[in-house]
Fold this sequence. Notes:
This protein is of the alpha+beta class. It is built from 25 helices and 27 strands. Strand 9 and strand 10 form a beta hairpin.
Amino acid sequence: MFATRPSQAWDEAGGVGTEVEQVTKGDMRRGQAGPDAQASSRPVTPHERLLQVGRGLRAALVTDAQGRVVWMDEVLALAAGWEGGGELGRSCREVLSRLPWLLAAVRTALTGEQGLGEGSGQGQHLFAVVVPVYGDDGSLVGACARLQPRRTARAEPDTPGTEHVREHYESLIDSIDGIVWEADAEFRFTFVSRQAERLLGLHARRWVSEPDFWARHVHPEDWGRVMATCMDALRQGRTHELEFRMVTDSGRAVWMRTQVTATSEEGQPVRLRGLMVDVTEQLRSRERVEHTHSVLRATFDSIADGVIVVDAEQRIIAYNKRFQDMWGLSDAVMRGRNAEAALRQAAPLTVDPAAFVAHVQAQFTPSAAVSVNVIEMKDGRVLESTSLPQRMGDAIIGRVWSYRDVTQERRAKMERERLLVAEQNARERTEESFALLDTFLNHAPVGLAFVNRDLRYLRINTALASLHGHSREWELGRTVWEANPLMAPHFAPLMLQVMETGLPMSDMEMSGHVPATPEELRHWRVSYYPVSTPSAGVVGLGAVVVEVTQEHRARQERERLLKEAQEAIRVRDDFLSIAAHELKTPLTPLKLHLQMMKQQATQGQALKPHHVDKALSQVSRLSLLIHDLLDATRIEAGRLGLRRGPVELQALTDEVLAEARPLTGQHTLERVAPPEPLVVLGDRGRLAQVLSNLLENAFKYSPTGGSVRLKLERDGSMAHVSVRDSGIGIPDDQREHLFQRFFRARNAPISGFGGLGLGLYICRDIIERHGGHIWVDTRVGHGSTFHFTLPLAP
């Protein structure tokens, strides 16, 4: 169609403009329906070009280059005396015999010039502008005529004056849906119709008054092509057509199509004339149609079904490559577009050609019925045919057949039926096997299960399910992560490894917590065995879980008892070694002094006092060793008694220091105490024993002398006592064992430092029995400071 708006030929004489509806009287949809219906990637035919331009001009008459009528408005046909139809395809000389003024304008346009005419038709006075139309190759393809009725309130003479004619021509030109223009040989506009302002927002006066107007408003990318086309028109003296973009003052680009015609005087081109039509929406529509056509074509060719479309005249309208290959049709047959010929070539391929031909021919008759048929081919293929009516609106204009190769589907169906029977038999056998398996599983004393490759339980017995804290029914179909989230991170990777490698894992020791007893550490012996089939390979695994928690605990208890026994033996041996050494050490000098005193007595000599003192000193040492052994025994038995009473620590430390001063030797003894008395409730003798032991150790483990400092201070509600020396110190890794029974630091060899390793053990027990705390700060080579605290008396 030219447009969706009515194209009125005239309206004042009672004529009614009609929308283009049919080819015979004003429609261009039949055959070639216009630019929108024809937009595609192929070249535009001359016929299509005429319809495109005619639509843009809202023309009342379209002719081809030979002067034959291609399209004619219904009202104009009535005025020309062809109200009964039949004008299409006839020459303009025959059709326009009653309108000679219009015939003359058409003949002028067919020479390549713009034709103008004015005359009467059935009582109306009309003006005509006829423009030549050119194809893509620049050749003249025809002409389009636009008619405009004269609009006056009074009758006008048949031959108006020159000014009157000019005004009406300008009015007619301005009514054209396009920009009529004229320019000189320098490409300066000398005339532009008023449509320029409506289409582009650029006033016609600017086109004429601004010398560089065209250069500024043609898109920069198109300017060279526009100038080249205008130059060719001037040089060749024939009409050219091109599409280019004009740029408005707002920067909007508008696609225009223009015809450029050069007019000559005395054989020299002197000016250019043309008509610009806004084709922006037309180009966009063409792009959309081309895109849609491309998508539909690609879709059509990509589908797996063979498809063919046949019109009511049994001509093949469309088909895809799949259809041609499916039926083995030659290219010559398909190019012929004859459906009957294609049917005759395809029929021998079917098992029953006659029935096939009859069925297809019956559907050539237009019908709304939908047909589905199965066709068996001689080569063993089976095709499923579906036939649908092709519609345009409510009218049926043809038929669409689609053919699907269902050979594999049919074979698959038969195979499925065979497999279904086999599966039913296998299922019955499997159910019997599963019944036996379930009986074995449910009565087994160990945990048993089967899982698939997704680690879902296919079979599980009560022993293993109860371990997870669930029932057998709940766990079936669930993953190991759902059934046992506490242990799954440990054994799930092992299960996957077994299924990946196909190698079993047996008798693995595993410990952890399970939902049934989340607070208890339990132990199992676990084995995983891959389960495989000849066709599918490894499909899962079997799990055997044996509870060994009691065995593990018994083994741990045995190991603990063995370790304790070994430790007791070691302690005993160490103690006997140390005790023998410590007890022997004072006996040797004691025996020596006693022998000296015996010799003196035998010889009648007076006994020397220092031998007696030395002997008594060794006896005292033996007594202390024995007391330490007795105290250690009492502590182990819980029978170490305390005689509590008020004890002033300043006085107690003075007494202990007085007894210790003879032992200082090379050491300097220092005491620091607050002026106020520090009184505790305790056993005076036992507290003195603690102080004496700490001072003795300070002297003993500072063999090179140095300062020994005893300090008392108040620390809140506690009395804080510390003994600091500058001796050998204690290694860091032995501090935690320092107050244990029989412990001696490795850097204090027996030969250099005596003792049973009971002193600090006894000190700790005494202090803790008094409600205090004892600890040490030490560094190897820099001495040690022993601290203890006691609660002050209220």
